[in-house]
């Protein structure tokens, strides 16, 4: 996660203004409300007026040459709009209370599954030395009475931080802020989300790790920028890992892709981040609504190739960037399917795809592991599928937390909250708070 790639540049600094109470989002206002930065002529994948996550000019993001003023990009006013949720029985495709309860359980399982998988990954997040991981796995799996994988390795072996056992990584922290915002506001309001995000991360202790998009967001927001101008040109994994609560709340809503775009641009104002965020959200949404991962992925690919199949959300209301980059996303997912069809072992496949946090690697590897788990453990108990799926994500090394978080969300959705091992929940520091918030989130649709 520390290296810098085109379009995923690294923030050099961040303002030091602090909030003494992270929960008090409304008190953590910018010192001034400046106008959005002026459009910068560029051929990169960032939206006109977006800020880069480096001190210099933005590097090309590999967006495929999307026009800077892509049609349908939401204006600043849309980010202050609270989009009402759909009640379960008002959602297209949910025809009766029994089905509504199943979807509610899957939505709850997705949030809990992502949170626990992220905490489980913290101890080995960022480790690129596969020989170290193999040694740890062998040692921890040697106990026949209580074999373990790489979950909750303590003390942490990652190079980026030394958190206490069971704490969330930056990905889990970002998702938790969004979860609290959605529950508190009763839906997505990106201005409120930005305020709470600033309060949470500006007040974080000095030793807490902040990724490039968080640093850039803090810098821009403190300078007075509001969404989407406070987002930076970044296309790393947080564009999809933090979306799990949003998908749980708006699964089945025709405007979900448009809401994903607003949420992503609040901190990552790049076309590439939006396109990948929409792809991941639509896959997870399909699982929450009852599809297999394979079925959800096929539906997502179909929607990216034919935006009209989704309706207004991908054909006008969401940015043209999603449509323009849809082909690139589909191509990257097709690579995953070829590896699956060739029966490429997971270690070799991950070596080919890559282990860093820059898109498309983290979503490709997560989807591959999900498809392999579904293929080989389709008839296994949901608890076993979740446990082995997340363990497989951790064995891959590198940015395993982003990989594990999406795997955990999808497998948690497939099996509901009961698929998440109780022992793992107890090791996760925020599991009680997360579960309570997730219950309140789902209750917004009752």
Keywords:
446 residues, mainly alpha, ADP-ribosylglycohydrolase fold, two-stranded parallel ribbon, 2 strands, disordered N terminus, ADP-ribosylglycohydrolase, Ribosyl_crysJ1_sf, Ribosyl_crysJ1, magnesium
Overview of the structural elements:
Residues 36-56 have a biased composition (Low complexity). Pfam families: ADP_ribosyl_GH. Mg(2+) binds at residues 165, 402. Its cofactor is Mg(2+). The chain has 446 residues and is mainly alpha-helical. The protein has a single domain (99-140, 152-443), classed as ADP-ribosylation/Crystallin J1 (ADP-ribosylglycohydrolase fold, Orthogonal Bundle). It contains 18 helices and two strands. The protein has helices at residues 97-121, 130-141, 170-185, 190-202, 212-222, 238-241, 244-250, 256-267, 271-288, 293-305, 313-317, 320-341, 346-353, 361-377, 382-395, 400-415, 422-427, 431-443, and strands at 51-52, 232-233. α8 (256-267) packs across α9 and α14 (361-377) crosses α16 (400-415). The protein is globular and about 55 Å long. The protein starts with 50 loop residues before the first strand and ends with a helix. Mean pLDDT is 83; it is low at 1-71 and 311-317.
CATH names the topology as ADP-ribosylglycohydrolase fold
Task: Give the helices and strands as they follow along the chain.
Answer: EHHHHHEHHHHHHHHHHHHH
Our count of helices gives 18
CATH homologous superfamily assignment: ADP-ribosylation/Crystallin J1
What fraction strand? under 5%
**Distance between the amino and carboxyl termini:** 40 Å
* Broad shape: globular
Q: Mean pLDDT, as a whole number?
A: 83
Helix content: 40-55%
Query: How big is the Rg?
Result: 20 Å
Q: Give me the secondary-structure category.
A: mainly alpha
**CATH architecture verdict:** Orthogonal Bundle
Task: Please indicate the count of domains.
Answer: 1
Q: Give unreliable regions as ranges.
A: 1-71, 311-317
Widest sheet: strand order? Answer: 1-2
Strand segment count: 2
Highest CATH level, the class: Mainly Alpha
Largest sheet: 2 strands, parallel
Binding site for Mg(2+): 165, 402
Biased composition (Low complexity): 36-56
Cofactor: Mg(2+)
Region (Disordered): 1-73
């Amino acid at each position: 996660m520390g290296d810098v790639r085109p379009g995923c540049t690294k923030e050099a600094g961040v303002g030091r203004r602090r909030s003494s109470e992270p929960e008090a989002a409304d008190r953590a206002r910018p010192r001034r409300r400046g106008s959005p930065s002026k459009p910068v002529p560029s051929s990169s994948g960032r939206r006109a007026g977006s800020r880069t996550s480096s001190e210099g000019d933005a590097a090309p993001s590999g967006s495929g040459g999307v026009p800077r003023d892509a049609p349908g990009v939401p204006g600043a006013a849309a980010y202050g709009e609270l989009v009402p949720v759909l009640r379960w029985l008002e959602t297209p495709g949910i025809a009766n209370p029994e089905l509504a309860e199943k979807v509610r359980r899957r939505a709850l399982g997705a949030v809990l599954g992502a949170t626990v998988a992220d905490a489980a990954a913290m101890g080995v997040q960022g480790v690129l030395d596969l020989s170290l991981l193999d040694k740890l796995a062998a040692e921890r799996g040697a106990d026949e009475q209580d074999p373990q994988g790489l979950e909750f390795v303590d003390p942490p072996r990652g190079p980026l931080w030394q958190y206490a056992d069971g704490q969330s990584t930056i990905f889990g922290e970002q998702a938790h802020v969004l979860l609290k915002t959605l529950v508190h506001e009763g839906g997505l309001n990106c201005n409120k989300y930005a305020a709470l995000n600033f309060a949470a991360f500006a007040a974080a202790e000095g030793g807490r790790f902040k990724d490039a998009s968080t640093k850039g967001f803090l810098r821009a927001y403190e300078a007075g920028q509001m969404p989407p101008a406070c987002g930076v040109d970044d296309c790393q994994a947080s564009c999809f890992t933090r979306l799990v609560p949003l998908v749980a709340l708006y699964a089945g809503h025709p405007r979900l892709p448009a809401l994903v775009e607003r949420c992503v641009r609040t901190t990552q104002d790049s076309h590439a981040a939006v396109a990948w965020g929409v792809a991941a959200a639509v896959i997870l949404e399909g699982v929450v609504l009852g599809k297999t991962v394979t079925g959800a992925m096929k539906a997502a690919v179909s929607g990216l190739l034919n935006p009209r199949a989704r309706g207004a959300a991908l054909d006008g209301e969401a940015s043209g960037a999603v449509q323009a980059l849809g082909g690139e996303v589909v191509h990257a997912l097709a690579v995953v399917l070829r590896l699956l069809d060739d029966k490429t072992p997971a270690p070799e496949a991950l070596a080919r795809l890559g282990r860093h946090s820059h898109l498309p690697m983290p979503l490709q590897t997560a989807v591959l592991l999900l498809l392999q788990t579904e293929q080989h453990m389709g008839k296994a108990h949901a608890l076993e599928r979740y446990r082995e799926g997340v363990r497989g994500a951790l064995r891959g090394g590198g940015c395993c937390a982003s990989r594990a978080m999406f795997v955990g969300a999808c497998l948690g959705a497939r099996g509901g909250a009961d698929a998440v091992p109780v022992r793992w929940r107890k090791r996760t520091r925020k599991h009680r708070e997360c579960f309570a918030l997730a219950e309140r989130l789902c209750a917004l649709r009752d």
